[in-house]
Design goal:
- By secondary structure, the protein is of the alpha+beta class.
- The chain folds into 2 domains: about 1-180, Cytochrome Bc1 Complex, Chain A, domain 1 (2-Layer Sandwich); about 210-405, 2-Layer Sandwich (Cytochrome Bc1 Complex, Chain A, domain 1).
- It contains 16 helices and 10 strands.
- The chain has helices at about 35-45, 50-60, 85-90, 90-100, 105-120, 125-140, 150-155, 160-170, 240-250, 255-265, 295-310, 315-335, 335-350, 355-365, 370-380, 390-405; strands at about 1-5, 15-20, 65-70, 75-80, 175-180, 215, 220-230, 270-275, 285-290, 385-390.
- The strands form 2 sheets. A 5-stranded mixed sheet has the order 1-5-2-4-3, with helices on both faces.
C-alpha cells in the first residue's frame, strides 16, 4: 500500500520525491541481520528497462540524484532533479520499488561490499564501543544491531534469502512525499493521519552495575567512554523535554559538556550526545574520548555531571538558553528541502500528526526544569556504560563505576 503526501513549500527550481518503506533493519530476521541493507542497495541497481549501468547513466544525464538509506525503522529511497526533468525521472521510483531486476550478479557485489564495510567498521574503536553499548542496553531488541548487520550473518545470506525478503518488502506500508504538486495526490495538511499503536520495549531498571557495563581493549592512546540508556519513542510527550536536555548538554560552546570538559579542563578530543529519532525507545547517549592519562579524571567529571542531573533541576538561565538553542536547531533543519521531506515522511510513518513551527515552539516553552528532572530520574538513574581503552584503565573505571552507580 502506498500513501501519497505533498508539501506546499516555496517555489524552487528543483523537485524531490522520497518513499519511506515502513520496516528497516528492525525486521531483519534472526540469523540474517543486514538483509534489508542488502535488499535496499540491490533495489537501486537496476529495474525494468534499465541495467545497473544504464540506470546510473540515465539519472546522471539529467544531473539528478538517486539515494537510498536503511534506518532501524524504515527504508528511504529518493530522487531529486531540476523541475523540467522531474516528470521524466519520477516514474523510476515506481520501477525501483515494484519492478527491480534483483540480479544475482549484482547481489554478489552488494554482499561483498557489505562484508567489506563491516570489516572496516571494526577497525574503529569508537564503533566497537558503541556496538557494545547498544548490545547491553537493548539485548535482543532490533535496536541492538547495526543496520548493516554483522559479518557472520551477512556472509550466510543467500540470493534466495533476498528474493524471499523482497516478497515481504512488497507488502509493507509505503509512504511517498514530494514538493512537486503536479503528482496527483492529497494535501499533507488536510489528510487524516492513521495512528499506529506499537509497544515500546520495557526498560529494565533492576540490572546490577556489572550487567550495565562492558569494555573492549584497544592499543591506542585513546579512551572512549559512552554512558546512557534507552528512553522513549518519538511519539512520546517525553521526547521534547529530552531534546531540551540534549541541547543543554551538547549544543554549541555554551553547552554543559563543552564547558566542563574543554573550556575548564581541556581534556577531550570528541564529545557530544547521540539522541536519534526512533519509532521505539530511542537511545540517549553521552560520549567522549580522552587520552589514557586523563581517562580516570574524565570519568570522575562525567560521574559528577551525571549525578547533578539526577539531583538538581536546571536553573532558569540554563533551561531558557537550552530551549532557544533547540528552536534554532529546528530552524536550521528547515533550510534543506531534502531534510524537511525526510523528517516529515518518517514522522507520518510513525502515525504522528505534524504540527506547525508555532505549536512546536509553544510546546518547548511549556517545558519546565522539573519536567526534565523527572525524566532524568526515570531514565538515567541506572545508566549503561561502555568503554574502549587499555585494560588497566578500563578495569579501574569498572571499580569506580561499581562504587558510583
Amino acid at each position: 500500500m502506498l500513501e501519497r503526501y505533498f508539501l506546499n513549500n516555496k517555489k524552487r527550481n528543483f523537485s524531490t520525491a522520497s518513499i519511506w518503506i515502513k520496516g528497516g533493519s528492525d525486521v531483519d530476521s534472526v540469523g540474517k541481520k543486514g538483509i534489508n541493507k542488502i535488499l535496499s542497495s540491490l533495489l537501486t541497481r537496476g529495474c525494468e528497462g534499465f541495467s545497473n549501468y544504464t540506470l546510473s547513466e540515465y539519472i546522471d544525464s539529467y544531473g539528478a540524484e538517486l539515494n537510498q538509506e536503511v534506518f532501524e525503522d524504515g527504508i528511504s529511497i529518493s530522487i531529486k532533479s531540476l523541475n523540467e526533468h522531474f516528470s521524466i525521472l519520477f516514474p523510476l521510483l515506481d520501477l525501483i520499488i515494484n519492478k527491480p531486476t534483483l540480479l544475482e550478479r549484482e547481489f554478489q557485489k552488494v554482499k561483498k561490499s557489505s562484508i567489506d564495510f563491516l570489516k572496516k567498521d571494526k577497525e574503529n574503536p569508537f564503533n566497537i564501543c558503541f556496538e557494545k553499548w547498544r548490545r547491553i542496553v537493548y539485548s535482543n531488541h532490533p535496536y541492538a544491531f547495526n543496520t548493516n548487520g554483522n559479518t557472520n550473518d551477512v556472509s550466510k545470506i543467500t540470493y534466495e534469502d533476498v528474493l524471499l525478503e523482497f516478497k515481504n518488502f512488497k507488502s509493507r506500508y509505503k509512504y511517498l512525499i514530494s514538493n512537486n504538486l503536479e503528482i496527483n495526490g492529497v494535501s499533507i495538511e488536510t489528510l487524516e493521519k492513521k495512528t499506529f499503536k506499537e509497544k515500546s520495549r520495557p526498560i529494565n531498571h533492576d540490572l546490577s552495575s556489572n550487567n550495565r557495563f562492558d569494555f573492549n581493549k584497544n592499543d591506542s592512546n585513546q579512551t572512549i567512554i559512552m554512558i546512557g540508556n534507552q528512553t522513549c519513542s518519538r511519539r512520546s510527550s517525553e521526547y521534547l523535554p529530552l531534546k531540551v536536555l540534549e541541547s543543554y548538554l551538547s549544543y554549541g560552546m555554551s553547552a554543559a559538556l563543552f564547558k566542563l570538559f574543554r573550556e575548564k579542563n581541556g581534556i577531550t578530543y570528541d564529545l557530544g550526545v547521540y539522541y536519534p529519532v526512533r519509532s521505539g525507545n530511542a537511545p540517549f547517549l553521552v560520549y567522549l574520548s580522552v587520552s589514557n592519562k586523563k581517562a580516570l579524571f574524565a570519568f570522575e567529571l562525567l560521574s559528577s555531571l551525571w549525578k547533578d542531573l539526577l539531583l538538581n533541576p536546571l536553573i532558569d538561565d540554563e533551561i531558557l538558553l537550552a530551549k532557544e538553542k533547540l528552536k534554532g536547531s529546528f530552524l536550521l533543519g528547515n533550510q534543506s528541502l531534502d531534510e524537511i521531506l525526510q523528517r516529515k515522511i518518517q514522522l507520518i510513518s510513525y502515525g504522528m500528526n505534524l504540527i506547525s513551527e508555532l505549536d512546536l515552539n509553544s510546546k518547548i516553552d511549556e517545558i519546565s526544569a522539573l519536567d526534565i528532572l523527572k525524566l532524568t530520574k526515570k531514565y538515567f538513574s541506572k545508566p549503561f556504560l561502555s568503554i574502549s581503552g587499555n585494560q588497566k584503565t578500563c578495569l579501574e573505571i569498572s571499580k569506580r563505576w561499581n562504587q558510583n552507580f
